[in-house]
Amino acid sequence: MNDTKQVDVAAAVITRPDGSFLLGQRAPGTFYPGYWEFPGGKVEPGEDVAAALVRELDEELGIRARRCWPWLMREHRYEHAHVRLHFFEVPEWSGQINDHVHSALSWQRADALAVSPMLPANGPILKALSLPRQMGVTDAATLGIAQQLTALERALAAGLRLVQLRDGSLPADDRRRLASEILARCRAHDALLVINGDAALAGGVGADGLHLPARDLARTNRRPDFAWVGASCHDRRDLERAAWLGLDYALLGHVAATPSHAGQRPLGWSGFTDLARQLPLPVLAIGGVGPQDLRVARAAGAHGIASIRAAWTAAGSARSPQRG
After folding, report:
1. Tens digits of per-residue pLDDT, 302-311?
2. How confident is the model at residue 1 (pLDDT cuts 50, 70, 90)?
3. φ, ψ for residue 243, nearest 5 deg
4. First and final C-alpha spacing in the chain
5. Cα–Cα distance measured from residue 12 to residue 59, given in angstroms and rounded to the nearest whole number
6. Biggest alpha carbon distance in the chain?
7. CATH 3.90.79.10 region(s) of the chain?
8. Can you give the C-alpha Rg of the chain in angstroms?
9. Which CATH code for domain 5-128?
10. Neighbours of 44 (CB within 10 A)
11. Which of 72, 142, 192, 212 is close enough to 216 for a disulfide, judged by CB 3.0 to 4.6 Å?
């Protein structure tokens, strides 16, 4: 018989416009003293998780969360309890931060963490926070290779930091050359490149990761050996399989009507929220969305957005935060 207590915890990723987030150091005399964590606390019986977060931030930091966006849910088994951590992004708050429970507070960045150790249940969140908020999915088969590369250069200069090479219909040699050209441009801008559906190509050119189409996700039984691995998902079963494999992100759509899915009913933002809730990995919205939808996407529980056409237009290349 398992007598381990189950505890729900609401945790806040309090972010500033520059992408930094707030961590607190646990005080002496508490569980895991000296470890760093995201602010938050236990959800009381019968209490709404978002309401618990608002209460905890008021009690711990003296601030009022003005916006509270659902993000991830991760589970961790400590020796004393099985904890379910419900992470929310808090990009706006009122009041002056005045800590009441931690030994110290520190604003940090996922790509340059300067404090340690992290509380075990909080550590995996750092990689998720380093995932850029926007993905551009290539469309060289439509645009032409030269125009795709020109559009990519414009988007990278404007701040795009995550690119997926799709274009599986190109001849193999053309796709390999395109992958090398894209990778060189991504490296010049410290951007990530993932290759859709071809592990040999991804490994051969030295890409950052592999993106699994839904059909490949269904027959994959072990996480591929890349730094970044994501998948295209269309329903809850796909999302749960991506989580089970320990993938780094998922794309979910289509959210809005698109020419490529004419006649198919889109999820809409409410449908997206229902499918993406309480998952341990970041989910990006795709299908009829662009950079202008980033804020509404995050409010619906998305980590960010992925786009094909919109990523390569002048409007889609407008500057916007990519990390944090």
Report:
1. 999 999 999 9
2. very low
3. -65, -40
4. 42
5. 13
6. 63
7. 5-128
8. 20
9. 3.90.79.10
10. 11
11. 212
Span 263-299, pLDDT tens digits: 789 999 999 999 999 999 999 999 999 999 999 999 9
Cα 236 from Cα 272, distance rounded (Å):
10
Cα(286)–Cα(306) distance, integer angstroms? 5
SS3 123: coil
Distance CA 282, CA 127 (A): 10
Long-range contacts of 48-54 (CB under 8 A, 24+ apart): 49/8, 49/10, 49/86, 50/10, 50/88, 52/8, 52/10, 53/10, 53/11, 53/12, 53/86, 53/88, 53/90
> Is the pTM higher than 0.85?
yes
Question: Are 6 and 76 in contact, with CB atoms under 8 Å apart?
Answer: no
CATH of domain 131-312: 3.20.20.70
In what order do the strands lie in the sheet containing 5-14?
A: 40-42, 5-14, 81-94, 64-77
Residue 96 tokens, joined: 């002056």
